TrEMBL record:
A GO molecular function held by the record: acyltransferase activity, transferring groups other than amino-acyl groups
Sections of the chain in a coiled coil: none
Protein's UniProt name: N-acetyltransferase
InterPro entries: Acyl_CoA_acyltransferase (IPR016181), Bact_Acetyltransf (IPR050832), GNAT_dom (IPR000182)
Gene source species: Corynebacterium heidelbergense
Keywords: Acyltransferase, Transferase
Amino acid sequence: MDPVRYRQDGLSLVFRSLQSDEQGLLEKATLENMNWCGERFTMRDILRERKFAHYTRVDADRGDFALAAVRQGDVVGVVWAQFLGSADPGYGYVDDFTPEVSLWVQSEARKQGIGRQLLRAVVQAGRQRGIQQLSLSVEEGNHARELYESEGFVAVAGREEDGVMIRQL
């Protein structure tokens, strides 16, 4: 993806593809996402436990893709979509044809519209790839649920307790 510039209400960002040498960013993002409500897990947990570790790698060969939001040269957020598959499903798994989305914004950059723009960018990127829908999982009580709902994600019937949501593209 060629870099895309975004400007609105004083927010100036560049969206670009995540680079192969930025895996450490996905590790940090996954840890912070899993600890959204307080310290529950360590980086060691994230890297060693399969249920977390698969979120720290984007595999372009299976169709995964990731976008970074950059402000003044610093990555302030990232969104990634992964085809984890039934052999190694994520929390938001619905089927082998639906990538699961993860979204992270640096704590100092939250509540500025960056997450919303990243979510819109991953939807657009999914459409460009011919993907029919995206999924994600959000725990009960996580304020991000409001963002996801406002951007068209709906709960998957029978998976509400797991926080699984999908968005048709």
